[in-house]
Amino acid sequence: MPTHFTNLTDAATLETDQFTLARRIIGDLIDHLATGVVHGCAGTGKTFAVQAVLEDLRAGTGPRGRTAALTLTFTSKPTMRLVAEELLKALTGSAPRNRSRFYLIAALIDLLTGPPRLLVIDEAQRMNSDCLEQLRHLHDHPDTRFALLYVGGDGCWEVLSREPMLRSRVFRRLPFKPLDRAEVPALIRRYHPIYHGVADELLLDVDDTYAHGTLRDWAAFTHTAADLCRESGRAGVDAAIAANAYTLLGGGVS
């Protein structure tokens, strides 16, 4: 499994409905060589879920066996040529010598006609219309064979859905949201040993005061609380540990 935020140890992977759906949706994209989008607010677990699926694909431990998967992440407002260069570099392992965009596109079409693969574009909200259209052109080419997954945070779907040619081709879309408050106690007790046997009221207080259903914030709180438990000789979180953790985390304001 991918590393938890802040390299938190002893944490379990919470297979929430969204986590399970991410696995199903990515499998559907590969089966149909289709386009999909996984998006949501920062810290809700979308990147962790996608990375977990990619690890299984690369290891061949999932139901589809070993599947080639590439992940590209670009800085703000990449150019069409940069996108083509980075994709070609990821496919071949070396930087292209000819930097003409038309040469790059022709080379990419040739490379993408091989065995089916998955291309993941992370932080997709940074892409502009021209780059999105270029990827759509590569994906729609009759000779290429790859699934295309866009992953992004705040504003991702707003950026992608503005492109009618792209939006009409989205086969699967999964919005990640914060944990439902009613589900927090049962889920968090499975998350880390320091929560075993902790009352619902205290776990809900942590969620209301600091985490707000966000897994990344729960990881930060857990890391802090686990250190405090160890320093004080406690086996698990109590009200005093929670209060001290809030102080270290900025007074409980996240």
Explain this structure to me?
The radius of gyration is 21 Å and the shape is elongated. The model has no long low-confidence stretch (mean pLDDT 93). 49% of the residues lie in helices and 13% in strands. It has a five-stranded parallel beta sheet, with helices on both faces. It contains eleven helices and five strands.
* Distance between the amino and carboxyl termini: 27 Å
Give the CA-based shape.
elongated
Number of distinct helices: 11
Poorly predicted runs are none
Assembly type of the chains comes to single chain
Q: What is the averaged pLDDT score?
A: 93
Largest sheet: 5 strands, parallel
Compute the number of strand runs. Answer: 5
Structural class: alpha/beta
Brief overview:
This protein is an alpha/beta fold.
What is the element layout, followed by pairings?
Layout (H helix, E strand, L loop, with lengths): L16 H16 L2 E6 L5 H14 L8 E6 L6 H13 L8 H11 L5 E6 L6 H12 L5 E7 L3 H6 L2 H4 L2 E7 L7 H8 L8 H12 L3 H18 L6 H10 L6
Parallel strand pairs: 1-4, 1-5, 2-3, 3-4
Helix pairs in contact: 1-2, 3-4, 8-9, 9-10, 10-11
